[in-house]
Amino acid sequence: MSETEIKLSCRGVWKLFGNGAEAFLNDRSAPPSFEQINNAGLIGAVRAADLDVRQGEIFVIMGLSGSGKSTLVRCLSRLIEPTAGEILFEGRDLLRASDREMIEIRRHRMGMVFQHFALLPHLTVLGNVAFPLEVQGIDRKTREDRARGIIELVGLEGRENYYPRELSGGQQQRVGIARSLAVEPELWFLDEPFSALDPLIRREMQDEFIRLQSVLKKTIVFITHDFDEAIRLADRIAIMKDGEIIQTGTPEELVLAPATDYVAEFTRHIPRDKVMTAASVMTPWRDGVETAGEVNAGDRIGEIADKVESADRPFAVIDGDGTRAGLIDARAVIDVLVGRTGHHPVGEGG
Fold first, then answer.
1. Among candidate residues 76, 48, 52, 47, the one with its CA nearest the CA of residue 4
2. Average pLDDT, the chain
3. Which of 145, 162, 172, 260 is the most buried (most CB within 10 A)?
4. Which letter does DSSP use for residue 53 in this model?
């Protein structure tokens, strides 16, 4: 991965809560264990975290309650000061930025959405969405014109003059998302934004989020404790436990090659067709094979199973640059659905 592809990274980030946390870290020749931190009367919220977030990807940080995921994302935006480490935004260490510089970065280059909508009750939808632009000192006509465009983007056109109390939970969360997008952020942090919503509305908001990302192509750090939500949304996932990142990978890598028993248990109930892609089961492309159509290399097996299974010919698998990379047929799909690890080459009997 080239440096230009990395939007945000952290190296050796620690966040210990308690008196003398910085001195405790500095006085040790080796990183302390979880038990040593506890014995010192400290809380190891984040421990030696390393990660890279690529330009334009949805990077999900997940773990159970208390795993440190929300603390880490607040460290990444410096809403919480890390105890040690580096946080690099486009190669610049944010821990060396002044308070004034960080305020400007958050106002102009970062967007944030949290579980609790925190809308201003005395402002309309239009006023709430335009508020960050008002803080920037942008004139009323410009900020309201921009806010109207974003309101339309998130599907709330016609509700510009509603107040938060007049909206459903899902609509309120759309306003929160729109408000965070008003500054046109380069980096977008979302901390469990849908977890307070009813399951049906939550699913609708995930669909909306996927649609928005297909249009906006933001660099996103998304926090969740729900693995089903993570695999729907993520390009890559980091799993945390006791403040430590224990594995980072694509949903497919985490399910098929868990690094620890904890990750294996975390992913055990996920059907393989939800994470395995056409690229992972295709056979190499062969000229002369008659195909029934095309699928994308990144398409999940569960999404394409019906049409591939019902066809009497294989499908061409198209990679990111439009090249025919391989072939996938009904047998390959069925192997995934029933849990078999291998399948016969396309076009051969057996």
1. 52
2. 90
3. 172
4. E
The whole-model pTM stands at 0.86
Largest CA distance in the chain: 71
| Strand pairing class (92-93; 84-89) | antiparallel
Q: Which residue has the tokens 């201003």?
A: 120
Q: How confident is the model at residue 71 (pLDDT cuts 50, 70, 90)?
A: very high
With CA atoms as reference, report the closest residue to 111 among 182, 51, 9.
Answer: 182
Q: Edge-to-edge strand order for the sheet containing 84-89? A: 43-54, 6-17, 84-89, 92-93
How many angstroms separate the Cα of 341 from the Cα of each of 128, 133, 327? 52, 53, 17
CA distance linking residue 107 with residue 208, whole number of Å: 24
Alpha carbons 130 and 120: distance in angstroms, whole number: 11
Kindly report the number of other CB atoms within 10 A of residue 280's CB atom.
19
What pLDDT score does 307 carry? Answer: 94
Residue 101: both structure tokens together:
């510089």
Closest CA to 270 of 308, 301, 304: 301
- 129 and 150 Cβ atoms separated by less than 8 Å: yes
Q: Which of 260, 238, 241 is nearest to 249 (CA)?
A: 238
Neighbouring residues of 336: CB distance < 8 A, sequence distance ≥ 6: 272, 273, 276, 281, 301
CB 224 within 8 Å of CB 202: no
Query: What whole-number distance in Å separates Cα of residue 40 and Cα of residue 21?
Result: 9
- Whether the pLDDT of residue 115 is over 90: the answer is no
At 146 the pLDDT is 93
Residue 340: what pLDDT?
66
Look up residue 32 and give its amino acid. Answer: P
Sign of CA dihedral 234, 239, 245, 251: negative
